Amino acid sequence: NLCLCAILPGLTEPSHANLQQFLGPFVDDLLLLYTTGIKVRTLSWPQGRLVCVAVVGLICDHPALCKVTGFAEHASTMWPCTKCDIQRSEISMFSNASCRPWDCVEHKQHAWVHQNTLEANQDEYARKHGVWWSEFNRLLYFDPIMMGMIDLMDSLLLSEHGFIGNQS
Prior knowledge:
Layout: H1 16-35, E1 38-40, E2 49-51, E3 58-60, H2 62-69, H3 104-116, H4 119-129, H5 144-147, E4 148-150, H6 152-160
Parallel strand pairs: 3-4
Antiparallel strand pairs: 1-2
Helix pairs in contact: 3-4
């Protein structure tokens, strides 16, 4: 098991496009590590042993999770959740029955359409469908809904201090 941590360069939060540009080479390496793997030599395996790598989860705060996995931004007036299609106006009366879980296949289809939409129309498309392009969509096994997780500290602090569900 291996945990990779990343701190993005720069003085300000990167734009969605800049973040995806930063992630592109990283995802290229992940594709190679998953499909081809690498030979690693150890004392037990001096001739080398094939090791393949897969991402099993992304743990971020909510704004970063939205940008990295291609969901509408956390401040979206329509799509604030990375797990279901509840709209911000419905959060105060939330019940599990009132929202439909996001579907990985549908999410990736919208992401590919977003990627192939003219740049001038991408913001409008993202607002309508709640999905942006993410480089992680190139990993065929990657499910942004199941593998994207809000870190515990932010989740607990946000709910403890009443920031979840009390926004207009």
